[in-house]
Write a structure and sequence with these properties.
single chain, 264 residues, Jelly Rolls, 17 strands, 10% helix, globular, 3-keto-alpha-glucoside-1,2-lyase/3-keto-2-hydroxy-glucal hydratase domain-containing protein, AL/BT2_dom, hydrolase activity
Length: 264
């Protein structure tokens, strides 16, 4: 009997120690976010503006001031279709991109009404050096960033598809834009946008930490802004990776805290 009680006590002690060990907190894995914008200059960024070759910062459209990246129109008299993009000079495939943005001024003259308080984070972009001289947008997927116009609802974190198509709820989306479920942000308040990009699988948009849109299976599709034979030959192929770019679309604005977390 004594031997049985001792054996039971040993088993109980082992169980207690095992349970205690399992309840220990596992060390947290720190996420390694990398700043793409250093807050000082435009090193590692390439500019492409319609009507001008890649690498030319036409009329200082993109500048750095006070630690933020600005879409700047001080040298412009009117917009005149000078659609622009600034590309980070590295290809990414699986990642989370996060930044803050805000609109800070009046839209330029001779700009389309739809472009007021309008910008975007372009995902899986073509190389800016491959863009035609008068090309408005790169072949890509656009996470559209919109600002409110004072009264009516105007969601941000939307989806646009220049030269691409995706699945939303198992339906192929080829129309220009698809609205997210985000709220409207009026005025010049800072808004945080984040996208989780999983190669040619699933892409998710988040606005101020709230999940607002999911889509999948991005492909090269018709209506392409770039008409050359290379992209025609790629019709229907998956968009697996590419550059990241930010837009200039006729309203002054600012970006900051532009960072990326590459995923396995």
């Amino acid at each position: 009997m004594k031997e049985f009680k001792l054996l039971a006590l040993i088993i109980l002690l082992i169980s207690f120690l095992s349970c205690k060990d399992n309840n220990k907190k596992k060390p947290e894995i720190k996420e390694k976010w990398v700043q793409l914008f250093n807050g000082k200059d435009l090193n590692n960024w390439v500019i492409k503006i319609k009507g001008h070759p890649a690498g030319e910062n036409y009329k200082n459209t993109f500048i750095v001031e006070d630690g933020v990246l600005k879409v700047n129109y001080n040298e412009y008299e009117a917009f005149d279709n000078a659609f622009g993009h600034i590309f980070y000079n590295k290809i990414f495939s699986n990642y989370r991109i996060r930044l803050q943005y805000r609109f800070t001024g009046e839209q330029l003259k001779r700009a389309p009404d739809w472009a007021i308080n309008n910008s975007g984070v372009m995902i899986h972009c073509e190389d800016p050096k491959s863009m035609e001289i008068n090309q408005k947008f790169p072949v890509c997927i656009e996470a559209q960033l919109l600002g409110g116009l004072g009264q009516e609802e105007r969601a941000t974190g939307n989806l646009c598809t220049p030269g691409s198509a995706v699945l939303v709820n198992d339906s192929l989306i080829t129309r220009p834009c698809f609205q997210s479920s985000s709220k409207t942000f009026h005025g010049d308040q800072w808004v945080t946008f984040e996208a989780e990009v999983r190669n040619d699988s699933i892409i998710k948009h988040f606005v101020n930490g709230k999940h607002v849109l999911t889509y999948s299976k991005p492909i090269v599709d018709g209506g392409m802004p770039n008409k050359d034979e290379f992209w025609k030959s790629k019709m229907g192929t998956p968009l697996k990776d590419g550059y990241i770019s930010l837009q200039s679309e006729s309203t002054p604005m600012e970006f900051k805290n532009i960072e990326i977390l590459e995923l396995n």
